[in-house]
Structure formats: C-alpha cells, structure tokens
Amino acid sequence: MSLAQVSTVQMDLLPTIDEATFNPLRWRTPDEVGELLALADLPSLIAKIGSSPEWVWLIIAHRGSGRPWAQLCGHASRGLLVEVGFDDWSHIIAPEGARAWPRHDVGTFDWSYYACRDELHTIGSAFGAIADWMLDAEVANDYELRNVNDRRAAWRR
User: Which of 31, 69, 99, 140 is the most buried (most CB within 10 A)?
Assistant: First the structure.
C-alpha cells in the first residue's frame, strides 16, 4: 500500500514529525513481532489487519512500561477498532458522538471483538488516531475515549 492511499488529512501529520528524533516503536501480531523504524511505515502495517489469521490484531507500543500503546482489530477494508491505553487502563478511540449500539462482532478469523460499526476507523483515521496517541498521548478534538469494560473480546477457539 502506498502512502497516497491514506487520507491526506491524516498524512499531514508526517511533515511535523522529526524522523531523526522518532523513537522506534515495537509492533506485534499473534504470530509476528517487529520494529517500526519510521512512522510513515505504519499505514502499510494497518492495511494488513484482518487479511489473515496472523493479522487479526496489531499492537503498537513503546519500549518499557508506563508509555502509551495502541491496538487495532477488525478488517482494513471494512473498518478498524482502535483501542489505546497505558499499562493500567484502556479505552476505544471513537468518532465523537458515534453510536455505541448495536454491537456486532468486528473481529476476523479466530479473534472476536464486539463494537458498533459507527465506532470503526478507516486506515487513514486509524493512522491519525494512533500517531496522535503514540506521539503525544492525545486524542484529536473530533474523537472521544470510550470505556472498554462492557466490551467482549476473545479468541473463538
């Protein structure tokens, strides 16, 4: 996937990031682990979510504890659920005012996660939400944090 396929609004974040001072992030799927050396590589990782059993979810984290982390699940072409947090809590990032019901299983293959389709993100909006969170631990004004305590997420096995 090329960067041109990601929303230009979200990609406007890239020029403001000094890649020379960008601290690499770690990423993990159920079967793979890697390092994100440049933020510009994140959209291509996001685009793989839901494409195979090895990519049912993606976790992105800083090294060490007490730092922001993000995870995504769903399917890149149908919508992605973005969950963020620190060590001791997590929340969903949803478009402000989006409905929370009815909830459907938005997971793929063996992973199940129940959310309303209105809470899902495109590749571009997921990239923007994650970049804001991982770099500044902030949520953009047109998004809100939602509690995950009443959500169901589990392996279907």
Answer: 69
Q: Tell me the C-alpha distance between 30 and 54, whole Å.
A: 6
Q: Which residue has tokens 């682990």? A: 33
pLDDT in tens, 102-115: 999 999 999 999 99
pTM summary value: 0.86
Judge contact between 136 and 59, C-beta under 8 A.
no
- Full 3-state SS string of the chain: CCHHHCCHHHHCCHHHCCCCCCCCEEEECCCCEEEECCHHHHHHHHCCCCCCHHHCEEEEECCCCCCCEEEEEEECCCEEEEEEEECCEEEEEEECCCCCCCCEECCCCCEEEEECHHHCECHHHHHHHHHHHHHHCCCCCCEEEEECCCCCEEECC
